[in-house]
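[User]
If only I could read backbone structure tokens as easily as an amino acid sequence. I have put the entry right below:
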Amino acid sequence: MSKNFLRVKRDLLQEMADIPHHTQESWAEIMLKYSQFLTTEQDQQSFWNFILNPADDRDYKAPEFYKYDPLNVEIPEFQKMSIKSEEDEKMEELTLVNEEVRNGLTCYISTRVE
């Protein structure tokens, strides 16, 4: 484990201990506040292993982590969709246009009917 992860873990546990009772909101706020500092894959894996096994049980089996490769994700620019009404025998075919926009590690997909 890196020094960065150990520091984040220490701070996270300290903040959790300082609050006498938690709500879903306070728990989520603490998790999000400290997870932003885990920038390396190793730190993120250590974080999830800690969250899933906080008692550090020896029988714990760590999950398999897969490396995300955004270049291997293909979103077709054009798609066809058929719409058919149950009351009517007519069927209409629409062409959907997908536009992909990336902002850092976040991907937004805007879909519109052409």
